[in-house]
Structures are given as structure tokens and as C-alpha cells.
Fold:
Amino acid sequence: MDNLLDRFIRYVKIDTQSDFNSKISPSSKKQLDLAVVLKEELISLGLNDVELDENGYIMATLPANTDKNAPVIGLIAHMDTSPDMSGNNVNPKIIKDYDGNDIILNQKNNTLLSPDDFKELKNYTGKTLITTDGTTLLGADDKAGIAEIMTALEYLINNPQIKHGRVRIAFSPDEEIGRGADNLDVKKFGAAYAYTVDGGELGQLEYENFNAANVNVTINGKNIHPGSAKNKMKNSILIAYELHSMLPVNERPEFTEMYEGFFHLNSISGTVEKTDMYYIIRDHDKDKFNNKKTLFKKAVDFINKKYGPKTVKYNMKEMYYNMREKIEPVFHVVEIAKKAIEKAGITPIINPIRGGTDGAKLSYKGLPTPNIFTGGHNFHGKYEYIPLESMHKAVEVIINIIELYLQ
Structure:
């Protein structure tokens, strides 16, 4: 466990932000800077079959140290950090024996990490917190997961009395832009079951997520000089507002929780002549998800009937589906993870993911993959932090999972 903090700090200092606009894999070449470091570290730990492929995926094998039959288990984490905030020049602060009060992240811009804003901070009084310096994200999503997997592997190698089956490791690029599982060769990976180590707070265990669709919308207006615009102008901005107003107000992210889905207007920009909008549509329930897509299409049809054909053009793309459908037939993967968390002295927190996960795509590619916690909070921004003690527990849970598959 002694190397866990050093590993994590080393990893977060390498900028690996992924790029939505890129068409290559990995989407940013700088992700390979971390990939090369991880490849060398896996080799130095003594793992077998260490490989970094042309798409930026790393695979490796921890061989079984027993003749007892056990399924091959996969452990997966992603190397990239979110495009939402800079991951360059990450300068973590280490707060030992946290006193439960405000933490000054950055005096210059007066950035505070405060329990007034984040009540769960009080749960970590007396613990060691790793925070940002208030100018970047931290990168615990998901470099904490990588560090925890690496540390668990090192522990198992150094303690051969702990018997285990064959374990496969994968570190992937581009999870933050929804492509993390796209080029992971499940057949080559060769695991029967896997776990992404990519969750949040201590004790989280997740095996269901949103069904997801993304919608790019273009609204074509007609720009006429306002002095002579009567009965001629079509203001695409106002038509965009009208389209948006046709979607249920109470089905927006800010009014939903748990299993409630939503329509989220993620971005909008435009002029009288043309407006572009980007939506995400989410729901855990497949029927409700399909109903949301149908409602969106009906709203577009209404606008086109009112203002003329092709006023609104859109491209709706389904992104991923709820992995629960694929996990339920092999529910022991959840039960084992739950038992592993309890064995570590933690109460499992089992909630639906209000987002996506590589595990969803992997489960539909034939590799059932629930998600377990890293211990982090407030991902993707300057208020991100992670307690070191929660990271230690994540390592313990990973080791417990591997052991339990042999029993």
C-alpha cells in the first residue's frame, strides 16, 4: 500500500485529457504518455503478455498461482481525463488529518472546498485528502482506479500465499468521450467477467446505468432586415426556444434523480439564420427511453409542419444501453463484489449510475462488467478530491474480489 499515493500523484501529473472533436484513437496523443509509463510499470511488476496496441489500449496478465479452477477475471480503468476542465499542470494538495473545515484550494482566485457546499466532506474528518490546487481537475477519474489496480497487483505478486486465478488487466483511452470500450477486443481480452474500477465514493457498486441517445439539431431560419421582416423573417433562435419548450420541464437533469430520466440541452449557439443545439436523452427504463425519443421526434415534426419542411434537421444517435439486462443473468458478479466490499468492512452503496460507463458497452459486447468505487468525489472539476483511506479500501476490495472467485 505504501506506493499507492506516489503512483496516483505520478499519474495525475501526466495530462491525458481526451478530445471530443478528434476522429482518431486515442483521441489525443498525450494519452499515450501515460500509456507508455503504465506499460513499463506492468512489465517491471512482472506481469505477462503486456501489450500497448495502436489504439492506445494496454492489456496484461497476472497468471494464476494455483491449479484450482477459477474464471478469468478482468480489471479495467481508463487513462483519459474529462474535457470539461484542464488536466494540464495538475498540482495536487495533500491535506493530512483533515479538520472538517474549509480547505483553501487557491488563495489567488479564492477557491474553497467547503463542507457548506459539499456536506460529505465532514465524513472524512481526520483522514488524508488529496485535492486540486483550484485551477485544474484532479484526475481521480480514473487515475485513482489505475493506481488502485496497480497497487492490488503489486500486493498479490508480493504475497503469493494469496491464491488466485488468472487476472486480465486493461487500461483504456477515451472513456470520458464515450469511446472507451469501442476498440477493446473482448475476445482477445479473454475474461469471463470484469469490473471497471471507475466509481465514486467509498462503497459504491453499480450494475445499471442509463440508456443513452445524443441528438444534434440544426434549425434553419430566414434572416431579413428587421425593418422589413414582417411575415418574412424566421428567427431560428426563437424557433429553437419553441422546440425546447415542447419538452417536459420536469424532465430536465436539475429536476430528476435516481431512476428518473431526462432531456438535457447541453449546448446551443446561433443567429437568426441558423441555430445549432445539442441534446442528450437518458432513461434507465427502455420503454420510457423509447418514449422520450418518440416525443422528441414529434416535437420536431410539429415545428417542421408549422414553419416549413427542413426548418429543423436532426441526427439522433443511440450511444449505449442499460447493462442491467446483461448483468442479471450472471448476477453472482454483483454478489461477489458486494461480499468483497462487506469483507473490507464497508457498507455497499448500490445505486443506479446516472450516466454511462465502459461496463455498459462491454456488457453488450459479451463481457458482464459492473463498476466498483475508487473513493473520489466531485469529478471533472476544480473541487475534485479523494480520501487516501478510501483508495486503500478500494485496493482491498479488488484483492477480495479476486480471492472470492477462487472459493
